[in-house]
From TrEMBL:
Residues 211-238 have a biased composition (Low complexity). It comes from the Bacteria. Pfam families: ABC_tran. Residues 289-300 have a biased composition (Basic and acidic residues). SMART domains: AAA. InterPro entries: AAA+_ATPase (IPR003593), ABC_transporter-like_ATP-bd (IPR003439), ABC_Transporter_VariousFunc (IPR051782), P-loop_NTPase (IPR027417). The lineage of its organism: Bacteria, Bacillati, Actinomycetota, Actinomycetes, Kitasatosporales. This is ATP-binding cassette domain-containing protein. Keywords: ATP-binding, Nucleotide-binding, Transport. Residues 203-243, 281-300 are annotated as: Disordered.
Length: 300
């Protein structure tokens, strides 16, 4: 069973007499959680992520419960002596996959991020955007228990950014932890279980964590019907922001748009499966709304 990753009294400085970049950091990252880290440039966000990923060792304090981890750095070294597929296959074997499984996963992730056309292109010849797709794919192909993302969305096109949102939802739904930094405050708005801020070398909880999705974070409503008396699967309940029973007996689940695909797969893959009646964008409800007839109701 995967344990919590814990940082206890962790500090980090570079050099014997260098200034402390971080000090006194206490942080718990549970399995299945999504954690956002914020802070101004140069405050130590990337240092914290490198400590979480095991790239750097703490100067003081200790890190316990480290799971199988994958990391996307802020700057990816693209000039490597591999093609995109060759690099991903190599990394997959390093992460414990067989070579055929690693090659298969490499092709699947390149396809998902819209980079299949560059599979046989040398890494040194890739554009910055295509190189970033490979950087993200290498972190996902072996299904890590902890995914650490340092500005991983930067340089990706719109479709690839949305695909990474979906991949994050898939990992947390599967019980993995994800910790991320992103300059866009709208990134995964309303979804994180916890938000922390790095300031003057210290890590502080950000107020308002686990907030409801704001207009900057669009939501989707999935209306579904399960077996009589059945509750939705636990994984489905965990990713929703609200659930309500309609007059017709269906269940209306509101979920951040980035997690809608994962929710649908969870419902359809349940045993016995749920029947999805309707899917659409969430709309703000008026005060004290009257029950409304749904499209599905009017067809009965």
């Amino acid at each position: 069973m995967q344990r919590d990753l814990r940082l206890t009294g962790v500090g980090r400085r570079y050099g014997l007499r260098g200034p402390w970049v971080l000090r006194g950091v206490d942080l718990t990252v549970p399995p299945g959680s999504l954690t956002r880290v914020e802070g101004a440039n140069g405050t130590g966000k990337s240092t914290l992520l490198r400590l979480l990923a095991g790239i750097d060792a703490p100067t003081e304090g200790r890190v316990t419960g480290r799971p199988r981890t994958a990391y996307v750095p802020e700057r990816f070294p693209a000039a490597l002596p591999f093609t995109a597929t060759g690099y991903l296959t190599h990394l997959g074997t390093v992460h414990g996959l067989s070579r055929p499984d690693a090659a298969r996963a490499a092709d699947e992730w390149l396809e998902r991020f819209g980079a299949a056309a560059y599979a046989r292109t040398p890494m040194a010849e890739l554009s910055k955007g295509s190189s970033q797709k490979v950087a993200v794919a290498q972190a996902l192909l072996a299904g890590p228990e902890l995914l650490v993302l340092d500005e991983a969305w930067t340089g990706l096109d719109t479709d690839a950014r949305e695909e990474l949102d979906r991949a994050v939802a898939e990992r947390t739904s599967a019980g993995a932890a994800v910790v991320f930094v992103d300059h866009d405050p709208r990134r995964l708005a309303g979804v994180p279980d916890a938000v922390y801020r790095v300031s003057e070398g210290a890590l502080e909880p950000h107020t308002g964590e686990r907030s409801s999705p704001s207009p900057a974070g669009p939501s989707v409503v999935v209306e579904a019907r399960g077996p009589a008396g059945a509750e939705p699967p636990a994984d489905a309940r965990a990713m929703t922001t609200s659930m309500a029973r309609t007059p017709s007996g269906t269940l209306r689940l509101t979920v951040p748009a980035s997690r809608s695909d994962v929710l649908l797969r969870t419902l359809l893959g349940a045993r016995p499966p749920w029947h999805v009646v309707a899917v659409g964008p969430a709309e703000p409800l008026p005060a004290d709304p009257e029950p409304r007839e749904t499209k599905a109701d009017s067809c009965r």
